[in-house]
Design brief:
The chain is mostly helical. It contains 5 helices and no strands. It has a domain of 94 residues. The longest helix has 73 residues. The chain is rod-shaped, with a radius of gyration of 47 Å.
Length: 193
């Protein structure tokens, strides 16, 4: 028994040839799409490999991925030459994956190098902050000691002390004498070292 669709359609040779031509066209379009996709994968793989080749200082990092991608591209070319377009497109897709893996490895290495540099700078900054903190704490302690000395001197002496400077040939004024009666007399040598 024929399926319901085929019962209503006459199965003449022209109808069968049209169905065959449609099926063949579908196969050809599928192969063409696979071929275009393979060319896209091949082109992308080659472009990424060229990009990786422009990084001479990082070439050893991605050498393995580039080698695998190149090998897959060569296999794809051999398969394409032998007429096996399906496997050739798979090889091209594999080459693209290897090339993109190499690019990601390169990005990871570059990111890691940046992270190492940032960590180094952070450690240097941390050391500077610790040094600065030490200096600030020392200044605070010195200020505290000076305040304590000032308070002690004010409590002990009662009145604020006045410094008197006498130069050679100067006579102390009466004001100076009044302020300096209890203070020590100036040195005879005028304070010369």
């Amino acid at each position: 028994m024929k399926p319901a669709i085929l019962r209503s359609v006459r199965t003449t040779p022209s109808v069968l040839s049209a169905l065959g031509a449609g099926a063949a066209l579908g196969v050809v379009l599928t192969l063409a799409a696979v071929g275009l996709a393979a060319q896209g994968d091949r082109a992308v793989a080659q472009a990424v490999m060229a990009e990786l080749g422009r990084e001479p200082n990082r070439r050893e990092v991605v050498a393995d991925a580039i080698a695998h991608a190149q090998d897959a591209l060569e296999r794809g070319a051999r398969m394409r030459a032998a007429g096996d377009e399906l496997h050739a497109s798979e090889a091209d897709a594999l080459a693209r994956q290897w090339a993109e893996t190499g690019r990601e490895i390169l990005r990871a290495v570059q990111t890691e190098a940046k992270a190492t540099e940032l960590r180094k700078r952070a450690l240097e900054t941390e050391a500077e902050v610790a040094k600065t903190r030490e200096i600030v704490e020392e200044v605070i302690a010195r200020t505290g000691r000076l305040r304590a000395q000032i308070e002690s001197a004010e409590r002990d002496g009662g009145a604020a002390r006045v410094a008197v400077e006498v130069h050679d040939g100067d006579r102390p004024s009466s004001k100076r004498q009044a302020n300096t009666k209890g203070a020590a007399q100036p040195a005879v040598d005028g304070g010369a070292p």
